[in-house]
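Fold it.
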Amino acid sequence: MDSRGLNVLVLHCHDLGRFLGCYGVPTVDSPNLDGLAASGVRFSRAFSTAPQCSPSRASLFTGRFPQQNGVLGLTHAQFGWDLRPGERHLADRLAELGYLTSLIGVHHESRVRPDGEVARRLGFDEVLTGGQGEVVADRAIDRLVRFADLGRPFYLQVGFREPHRLPGRRDPADVMGFVGDHMSPYAERGVAVPDYLVDDASAREEIAELQGAVRYMDACVGRVLSKLDDLGLAENTIVVFVTDHGLALPRAKCTLYDPGLEIALLVRAPALGWQGGRIVTDLVSGIDLVPTLLDGLGRQIPADVAGLSQAPAMTGTAGRRHQAVFGQLTYHDYYDPRRCVRTGSRKLIVNFSSAPSIMDASQSWHRRCTPRVGLSGPAASHPVAELYDLDADPTEMSNVIDDPHYADDRAALMSRLRQWLIEVGDPLLVGAVGSPSHDEAMSALGPGRGRS
């Protein structure tokens, strides 16, 4: 088959990390995504470029790091970050190749504006945002039916908000849980509290909610995949399931530890041989999605795309591999500039502020999950640098930055991280990074000369 005629279906969700049965979490009920992994390709060491929504998604859909594409913080409400002029979304690249393009559900990779404006900015024929998972699945199914009738190759991007935290009437006081008003906790197989959290009654209550939200999202994904099969489109479609970053739990989302950056990445394309339950153990970055899809479609990868194609890895042939992957945090709820480099066995984090050591992702005044912490304690500020031996310390609890045994690792990773900052034109190289909120505040103050 000519790969240039293949369809592309990208399914994604919020805040999942790798919290799925196919990634070794036995208490999670995720039969549809587990089935996709079994019939396709599962990447076991894929990482996002950032531990929060907008920067990670901007990287997924442009193939470029946040420092390159301009999304260094959240794109909605008063946060106001946006792709730089000229940055190209995957939809724009595929529309140029004659693809029908549609975005359903979550959009978080450029400035949040009315759907029509988003469509024009990113290159979609249509954008329809919002909706709980069932509504998003209904709309995605409707588009698949329409695309099947039209008989042209399509790019369909489907975003589920779940399992992001959602307010609900059942939430305890001062808490935002995971199930909103349309889902239920799930603990029929028990509860898997991640190793970086204290395993106590309140954590188990919250993780049961998370498991329920994952189960709901998986069922919604399953409906879309089932319709793809029913329409006879599965053989000719590249299916991708990916999440943005790690779980919305303390010491995960909004941190540069592995639980904040780890992502699920499942791909299936029978026509290309991307199938059979293959597991790819190479280091993979979120910036690899765009070049992988373009390569699979037989298209040239643009020179400005920073990622590597993972197409060779999915057929077991030789290809370029990452020796290290990089992550960054600049703005989320507040300014907390951090950068990291991760190899197969080491992680270096450099902190550019004295903010609290863990940015809390619970969105609650009352936190139900308590993070396990290293020797610095729960109320500490960032050290300048952190170094972790991931073989001996996979939960990144023991900072060995000052251990003489790791002096060579420290020097090598510091050099590698600095070189990456130069390559991506990181604004931290010249000083603190301003934000759209700062610009708006200065505008509100009115004209003036500033400091004298």
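The chain has two domains: 3-315, 325-439.
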